Structures are given as structure tokens and as C-alpha cells.
Amino acid sequence: MTGAGGDRVREQAERILADVPAWLWDGERLPVPVEDIVDSCFGLHVRDVEDMSAAPGAPAVDGGQQLSGLLLPARGEIWVNADEARRWPPRRRFTIGHELGHWVLHRTGQESLFCRRTTVQEARAVVADIEEEASQFAAELLMPRWLLVREHAACNGDIDALCARFASSRAAMERRVGQLLVGEPPR
């Protein structure tokens, strides 16, 4: 995501990281403690859940698909797919960051999004934009540009080393490095 919307998302993530109390995170230590930030700074509880369809208002998913996470604003909870979290811990971190992105960026607007009448095509475009913003927020939060630039130089661009330092998946790291350091447009 580029342009004014992308700048807004980046600025929000940077503001949150700047406001994290020093006792929780010093702004340098890796990986960024996303679950501690969600809990201590936002009062949100992260729950690893075996059956994501049990969430109040959980959307129906097509066969073979599954939900990675859900934000339940009224409960102050982020639900994370427990099976996926066990198999891919970096994915769990990204999911938590993504759902925090919804909390920070979309919480007040989301209620009206599902209440207003729109065409199916308009609704899909809005949902895609919201999901992309939440994913960009997660990337900005978990792989802040100042730390990524520093660590990229320190390990000579070794993606596996970066993944280990940031507790990130390879796919998320390659995308982030491409956006920040190689100049590739976001996918």
C-alpha cells in the first residue's frame, strides 16, 4: 500500500511503537513484543482458539479455507487460530499485529461498514482495502523500518537471519524487504 493511505498506516504503527513504555520495550530489542503491546497498551486479550467458527459473528468461510484470526472489539479480544499458531508461530505474531491494526485503524468504522447497503462489488473492494491496511500495519509494527534497515545491513541481507531476528515468516519478510529496501511495489 502506497500513497496517503500507506503513510497514515505507517505513521499509526510508528506512533504506537514510540508510545510503548520503556519497561515493556526499549525500541531496539527484537523481536517486537506484539502480544505484550496488545495486552499492556491496549488491554486486549489474545486467545488461541481451536474452533474459530465459535466466535460471535464469525464469518462463514468456504470449504478448505480457515480464519487465522478475529478481532472481537466488544469483548476486547483477539482470537487466533490455535492449530495454525502451533504450526507457524511467526504467522501467529503477524495475525495478532493484523488484528491490532483493525483495532487501531478500523474499529469505529467497521460497524457501519457492515450495516450500510452497498453492491457486492463495492463491499469486496472495501474489505480488501481494510485487510491490506491491517496487514501493512502488522508489517510496520513487527518489522519497523529503522530496525529492518539496521538489521538488514548487519546480516548482509540474509533473509533467514532477518526472519530469525524478527520472528517473521519468510513470505512476510521478503515482502517487507522488497517494499523498503529493494523498491518493489507491494503485492
From TrEMBL:
Residues 78-176 form the IrrE N-terminal-like domain. InterPro entries: IrrE_HExxH (IPR010359), Rad_response_metalloprotease (IPR052345). PANTHER family: ANTITOXIN HIGA1, BLL7220 PROTEIN. This is IrrE N-terminal-like domain-containing protein. It comes from Conexibacter arvalis.
